[in-house]
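thoughts on both lines:
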Amino acid sequence: MVALGVAGALIGGLSPSIISKKDATSKISEVLNLQETGIREFYSICGACGAGCGIKIGVDGKGNLLYVTSNPNHPQRSICGRGSTGKWLWSHPLRIKKPLKRVGARGEGKFNEISWEQAFDEIASKLREIIDRYGAQSVVVTRHDIRMWNPLFGFLLGTPN
C-alpha cells in the first residue's frame, strides 16, 4: 500500500507533457501486478537472426519461462515469427536438452546420452584432427545471429573462414 501512495504522489507531480496520468497509473498497476504474481521480466535481444530485435521475457518465481514478446521500448517495437516462437522452442517437449551421441548407423535413430564434458572433448578432438590434417582454413565457422562468437571462435581456431 505504501507503494500506491508513493506512486500517487509521483503521478500527481508529473508534467502532462512527459506522461499522462492514465499511462503512469497503468504502468504502476502493471508493476504492482507483476510483484504480486511473482513474475519477473527481463529485457534482451533476440538471437534467432541477425536483426537484434528487442524482446521482453517473463519468468515465474520458479524460473519457468512464461512468455517472450516484443519490447515496446525498443526502437524496432516488434519481433518476427522466429522471435515469436521463443517460448515454444524453449519449452517444446521434443527439445534436446543434453548431448546425444549416435551409436547406430546414420539414419538409424540410435543415440546415447553423454556428458557435456565428453561432448566438448570429442568435438575438440575431431576439430584438432581436421586442422592437423587439412589446415586451419579447412574449418568454416558460421551462424546467422548477432553474436561475436563466429569471429572469435574462428580466430581461436586459426581460420579466416
